[in-house]
Amino acid sequence: MGTYHAGSRAVQDRVGVRERADHVGASIGEGIKPVAAAFLGLQPLLVVGAADPSTGEVWASALHGPPGFVRATGPRQMSVTGAVAASDPLAPALTGDGTLVGTIALDPRTRRRMRLNGRLRPTERGFVVTAEQVFANCPKYLQKRDSYEVVADRAGQEPRRGSELTPSQAEFITASDTFFLATGHPGGADASHRGGNPGFVHVASPLELSWRDYPGNSMFLSLGNLDTDPRAGLLFLDWTTGTTLQLTGEARTEFAGTERRVRFTVTQAVERPSALPLRWSAPEHSPANPDPAG
User: Fold this and answer.
1) What is the tens place of the pLDDT at every residue in 228-250?
2) Residue 263 near residue 283, CB atoms below 8 Å
3) In 10 A of CB 86, how many CB atoms?
4) Which of 88, 187, 250, 263 is the most buried (most CB within 10 A)?
5) Within a 13 Å sphere around the CA of 254, how many CA atoms are in the beta-carbon half?
6) pTM score
């Protein structure tokens, strides 16, 4: 897979950052370096994004386990022990040999994150991903959470499914300081992080939400994917209760001078109460977060 495809190039050119994108893109490789392997081995959480092989819907989901459940098992191979629940909308994608997946490991304790995109192969204990893109992101807009604990007796409840947001789900989104975005294009998939102060995601109606695209590394991998294919998946999680909210639908980017806003139309919502057994400490919001009212 090349560093950039036509969609990313189109957005870079529109914003006028192609030269900077070429410089930053030099950090993207296929190999998992020792420092990245060590980072993976410490994480209790991995977010994965992919398209359902039968419906084409794009979903993002969170996998969890004791540190070591995600690990590098080769120069270009990441192995994951465990799976999502059978009722998780991402489950069909994680059982298909050769599925294009995007993954992101994010550590709120250190405000570090690592993305690994590639092709999946199921195994008896989970799956492996052969890496095609591996890179780190800066800590901008990432909230710091000093510690977590495992709530051993927390049991996930039956998912609540719908075709639009409920009032409580809209409140959940508005109160969030973090979500994950899954996108794709014909040659690959990607999972990325979006962060800001609560209120940075605006719910316009039960079928539409939006967020301002804050200045970042200028690669425009996610927005480039959306320029090529509008299908997307969003994952919101409650860092205290473990509840997750997964959305699938389509997203479009609106450009107004130097400002960009992404509008997402919901087609399905899946809320999974107490889905994750992790309870994180209160956040320290990033000093880089803009005022969501601005």
Assistant:
1) 999 999 999 999 999 999 999 99
2) no
3) 8
4) 88
5) 8
6) 0.97
What token pair was written down for 258? 């130097």
Phi-psi region of 98 (alpha: psi -120 to 50; beta: other; left: phi over 0): left
Which tokens sit at 202?
């605006």
Q: What sign does the CA torsion over 85, 88, 94, 95 have? A: positive
Element housing 47 (H / E): strand 45-51
Three-state DSSP state, 245: strand
Tell me the one-letter amino acid at 237: L
Spatial contact of 99 and 86, defined as CB atoms under 8 Å apart: no
Token output for 139? 């800590």
What is the domain partition of the chain in residue ranges? 6-280
Query: How many angstroms separate the Cα of 20 from the Cα of each of 9, 26, 139, 179, 189?
Result: 12, 10, 18, 26, 22
Q: What fold does the segment set 6-280 form as a domain? A: Pnp Oxidase; Chain A (2.30.110)
Contacts of 56 (CB under 8 A, 6+ apart): 231
DSSP structure class, residue 288? T
Question: Which candidate, 181, 148, 179, places its Cα nearest to that of 67?
Answer: 148
pLDDT tens per residue across span 144-192: 999 999 999 998 889 999 999 999 999 999 999 999 999 999 999 999 9
What's the token pair of residue 286?
A: 């990033």
In terms of residues, how long is the chain? 294
What phi, psi does 92 have (nearest 5°)?
A: -60, -35
- Contact (CB, 8 A) for 160 and 271: yes
| Per-residue model confidence (pLDDT) at position 138 | 85
